[in-house]
Write a structure and sequence with these properties.
The structure holds 2 protein chains of 2 kinds. Chain A has strands at about 5, 10-15, 20-25, 30-35, 45-50, 55, 65-70, 75-80, 85-95, 105, 110-115. By secondary structure, chain A is mostly beta strands. Chain B is about 0% helix and about 55% strand. In chain B, the strands form 2 sheets. In chain B, strands 2, 4, 5, 9, 10 and 11 form a 6-stranded mixed β-sheet that branches. Chain B has strands at about 5, 10-15, 20-25, 30-40, 45-50, 55, 60-65, 70-75, 85-90, 100, 105-110. The chains are: A mainly beta, B mainly beta. The interface of A and B includes residues 56 and 90 of A.
Chain lengths: ~120, ~110
């Protein structure tokens, strides 16, 4: 049973460039969330996709955008990269919970982005 | 003020010791609570959910105090392999996002 997979594992970009990160959810999961983790900090929620729509968004600028495909995989796009975008980008997948149930999120290994 | 606060540590303990981590959250609407473990340069992995009545999983015990908005994790008989960062995580019932603390680093020495 494949877990959450992400690609690429590492990426180096320069300021102003654009980047696309990819995520495949755990088998049977239909929801994908993206998080940004700066060094020494906990992950920060960027957004969540369900049924190919952005279901919720965190406090990130419009430079951060995403997409979910019919097979539930997802992409995170970041435009006009800034030095401060250097971080570990984590994808988490889950199965949409029934009302009252907890929705447990499982994380992929992340993409480490360095912006120079 | 951060919504989830944790002591960053590090907690440096010998093998076999008992160690406890605490975490406070500021939003009383928080409804789900978790502890995740994160090894260096790896992804967070779910250690355990935290239930109102408290729960135990082997050497790990989690407690929740809703009145004080406080969560704890107790690790008994520490192993070298327990060395990691422990992330306290909450979720508000009306929201899908997980809100993470900055983590508490644990070092277990021989």
């Amino acid at each position: 049973d494949a877990g959450v997979t992400q690609s690429p594992t590492h990426l180096i970009k320069t300021r102003g460039q654009q980047v696309t990160l990819r995520c495949s959810p755990k088998s049977g999961h239909d929801t994908v969330s993206w998080y940004q983790q700066a060094l020494g900090q906990g992950p920060q929620f960027i957004f969540q996709y369900y049924e190919e729509e952005e279901r919720q968004r965190g406090n990130f600028p419009d430079r951060f955008s995403g997409h979910q495909f019919p097979n539930y995989s997802s992409e995170l796009n970041v435009n006009a990269l800034l030095l401060g975008d250097s971080a570990l980008y984590l994808c988490a997948s889950s199965l949409v919970a029934l009302a009252g149930d907890q929705e447990t999120q499982y994380f992929g290994p992340g993409t480490r982005l360095l912006v120079l | 003020r951060k919504e989830v606060e944790q002591d960053p540590g590090p907690f440096n303990v010998p093998e076999g010791a008992t160690v406890a981590f605490n975490c406070t959250y500021s939003n009383s609407a928080s409804q789900s609570f978790f502890w995740y473990r994160q090894d260096c340069r790896k992804e967070p992995k779910l250690l355990m959910s935290v239930y109102s009545s408290g729960n135990e999983d082997g050497r790990f015990t989690a407690q929740l105090n809703r009145a004080s908005q406080y969560i704890s994790l107790l690790i008994r008989d520490s192993k070298l392999s327990d060395s990691a960062t422990y992330l306290c995580v909450v979720n508000r019932g009306s929201s899908y996002k997980l809100i993470f603390g900055s983590g508490t680093r644990l070092l277990v020495r021989p």
